[in-house]
């Protein structure tokens, strides 16, 4: 089961990320929602749209949207993303799972005896201790 989202990222006094659509099961559903949002998405700030330009990045999974308003020009990036712990790719999901705050190695290697978790270069979800 996948957990895909469509996000908008932009700078407006501070860097912001907004979720446009959440809980999509497949990448194809997320891409369809992304393409639908390209011509309708407006930021959570007042802007009166006069013109919109949409630029596609080479990966074809993210777009730059430039909106010319009455007084200003505004840019945002719309993208799709997958929650790695729910990835439909078993290798990605397995590496992302945590057990007692540390990822369990698939190759059977021994964790350090002092209780310190081995540092992994793989991205993964993390729940801080005490939560």
Q: For the record, give the distance between the C-alpha atoms at the N and C termini, rounded to a whole number.
A: 25 Å
Number of strands: 5
Which ranges are low-confidence, i.e. pLDDT below 50, for 5 or more consecutive residues? 99-104
What's the helix-strand series?
Answer: EEHEEEH
Strand content: 35-45%
Global outline: elongated
The order of strands across the largest sheet is 2-1-5-4-3
What is the radius of gyration computed over CA atoms, rounded to a whole number of angstroms? 19 Å
- What about the largest sheet? 5 strands, antiparallel
Query: What average pLDDT do the residues reach?
Result: 78
Helix content: 10-25%
Continuous helix count: 2
Structural class determined from secondary elements = mainly beta
């Amino acid at each position: 089961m996948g957990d895909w989202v469509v996000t908008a990222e932009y700078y407006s006094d501070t860097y912001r990320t907004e979720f446009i659509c959440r809980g999509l099961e497949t990448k194809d559903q997320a891409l369809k929602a992304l393409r639908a949002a390209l011509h309708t998405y407006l930021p959570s700030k007042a802007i009166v749209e006069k013109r919109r330009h949409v630029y596609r990045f080479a990966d074809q999974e993210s777009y730059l949207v430039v909106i010319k308003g009455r007084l200003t020009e505004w840019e945002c990036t719309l993208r799709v993303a997958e929650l790695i712990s729910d990835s439909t790719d078993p290798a990605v999901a397995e590496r992302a799972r945590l057990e007692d705050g540390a990822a369990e190695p698939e190759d059977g290697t021994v964790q350090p005896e002092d209780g310190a978790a081995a540092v992994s270069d793989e991205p993964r979800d993390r729940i801080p201790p005490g939560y």
